[in-house]
Structures are given as structure tokens and as C-alpha cells.
Design goal:
Elements lengths: L13 E3 L4 H11 L3 E4 L3 H8 L7 E4 L9 E2 L6 E4 L4 H7 L1 H5 L1 H8 L4 H6 L2 H7 L6 H7 L3 E6 L2 E6 H4 E3 L2 E2 L6 E7 L5 E8 L8 E8 L7 E6 L6 E2 L1 H7 L5 H14 L10 H21 L1
Helix pairs in contact: 5-8, 10-11, 11-12
Length: about 290
């Protein structure tokens, strides 16, 4: 990740390596806005090199046992600790089996070296519009577990990311885990277009329940606006099933109804075109499964 900074060194900071959650929370209470948490450090170190962030204190949470937990108890979904890396998630097998949409999104994040260091919680907390985990997590109706001086709270991922580098988190709070409800009788898939960079120009995450009168769809587009966008119109187009006709209708609605913006990576008009392309691609793939 680079935005063209001339810096190759980091600004001065004090490094902390706590081994318990209580110790982390104590450091956050002590240093507040002057501290930043570090899981894998992929985004934070890049931001610090660019001088986009200059925390006086960096708190490394990789050795905190409570944050390294990856739990999937029967009937209770999945809990992913803040220090669990993308590689650990992908290699564990649980995502590929039950949470395909997230597995496909994370498998295409950067490269294997980055995935061995980056964490899902870190990827989410960066709140960069072009990253891939938020649309997939919103499609899965995921939540974040937060702890701070006022106690614990749970926030839907859809409300946690409020804008570019803007999340619902106080200076003395931290995300301890991402929670995903149990997925039963559902089909999921993820698709994106990058244009050769590490960032998506447009992405889509789809979850579709199988059969019955209460079939439901969740379709979330990423990288086209400041936050992921869930499209009720596209969901309505496919709720009765994915067919050649519903795929065409969904693609047209995505291009017409999903609001896109211009930025340094692409124009809104180009993104409108990409929405149609990736919607067709992801739905045709799901139709053939």
C-alpha cells in the first residue's frame, strides 16, 4: 500500500507488547488518542510511513491470547479474534465450507505474504473504501464486538464503517472480535475488478438462501462509494431465483441504481459499467453451482 510518500522511515513512537486484554485496555485508557493498536501492522505501518498517522504509542496485540481465538461452536456461528490473520482464516477450512463469500473475498486480498500478517479486524478497521472484507461481512450480517471504559457493546459491520478511515470506535475502545451468525441452507459468492492494482475498483458480495417461500438475498457492493452499499433493488430482482432473466435484470439495476463516485482510482461512469459486469459474473457463477 502506498500513496507516493517520499518517506522510508517511521516517525518516533513508543512500542508496547501486552500479553493480556486487561493490559491492552489499560494502555488505551492511559494514552487515549495518542495510541494506535497494531495487529498485523500492514495498514498502520504504511500509514505511518506516509505520515498519515503519527501515534506516540503503538500497542501490538499479537501476543494477546484472548484476541487469537477462532471459535465455531455448533449452532452458534463464527467468532474471529482481532489477532487472527487472514491466512489462519483461509487455512482453517471453516470459511471455505460454510462462509464461502468471505473465503472468496479474503483469498484475493493482496498476496500470501500480506495475508500471513494482515488480520480481518485490522482490514475492517482501516475503513478504506476499496478493501474487500466489509462487503462480504455485511452480506453475512456480521457484527463487531467492542470493549472499552463503558463496558462491552456489539455493532453491525454495516454501521461500524461510517466512511473513509471513519469507524464507530472511541479512542479508548477496541474491537475484540468479528462475529458471524450461523449460515444454513445458503449460497454465497464474491467478485471484484481491480484493474491491476491491489485495490478493488468495484466488488460485490452475494448471499442467497436456498429454496422455499422465504428465500432471501443480500447483495452488497464495495469500492464504488465511501462505504459499502446494499442494494434492495438487486436483491428483489433475484429473490425468486437466479435465472438468465433475473441475472440480466439485476445487472441493469445495479448499474442504474447503485450510487458510484469519482476518485483517484476510477470514474463513477466506469464503475457503473463494472457493476453490470461483476453482477453478471457473480450471479452466473452462483447459477451454475
Amino acid at each position: 500500500m502506498s500513496f507516493g510518500s517520499p518517506y522510508t522511515t517511521l516517525p518516533d513512537f513508543e512500542y508496547h507488547r501486552p500479553t493480556s486484554l486487561d493490559e491492552v485496555l489499560g494502555l488505551l485508557r492511559q494514552y487515549g488518542d495518542e495510541a494506535k493498536l497494531m495487529g498485523g501492522g500492514v495498514g498502520l505501518i504504511a500509514f505511518m510511513k506516509e505520515r498519515l498517522m503519527s501515534p506516540a504509542h503503538v500497542i501490538d496485540v499479537k501476543e494477546v491470547k484472548e484476541l487469537k481465538m477462532l471459535n465455531s461452536p455448533p449452532g452458534k456461528g463464527l467468532s474471529i479474534g482481532a489477532a487472527v490473520t487472514l491466512s489462519e482464516l483461509l487455512e482453517g477450512g471453516v470459511l471455505k465450507k460454510d462462509y464461502t463469500v468471505l473465503h472468496e473475498a479474503l483469498a484475493r486480498v493482496a498476496d500470501p505474504m500480506i495475508r500471513r500478517r494482515a488480520t480481518l479486524v485490522g482490514n475492517l478497521c482501516e475503513a478504506i473504501p476499496w478493501v474487500d472484507s466489509p462487503p462480504a461481512l455485511i452480506a453475512l450480517d456480521a457484527t463487531v464486538a467492542i470493549v472499552g471504559p463503558e463496558g462491552k457493546r456489539t455493532v453491525p459491520v454495516s454501521g461500524f464503517v461510517r466512511g473513509p478511515v471513519d469507524i464507530d470506535l472511541g479512542p479508548s475502545e477496541m474491537v475484540t472480535a468479528v462475529g458471524i451468525p450461523q449460515v444454513k441452507g445458503a449460497q454465497g459468492a464474491f467478485e471484484k475488478f481491480t484493474g491491476g492494482s491491489e485495490f478493488s475498483l468495484a466488488s460485490v458480495a452475494v448471499m442467497m438462501s436456498n429454496g422455499g417461500r422465504n428465500r432471501k438475498a443480500r447483495v452488497v457492493y464495495g469500492a464504488v462509494n465511501s462505504t459499502p452499499i446494499r442494494s434492495a433493488q438487486v436483491e428483489e430482482a433475484i429473490k425468486d431465483g437466479i435465472t438468465p432473466g433475473s441475472v440480466r435484470k439485476a445487472a441493469d439495476l445495479a448499474s442504474e441504481k447503485v450510487e458510484c463516485v469519482d476518485d483517484v482510482l476510477a470514474t463513477a461512469a466506469y464503475r457503473k459499467h463494472l457493476l453490470k459486469v461483476i453482477t453478471v459474473k457473480v450471479l452466473r457463477r452462483m447459477m451454475s453451482q
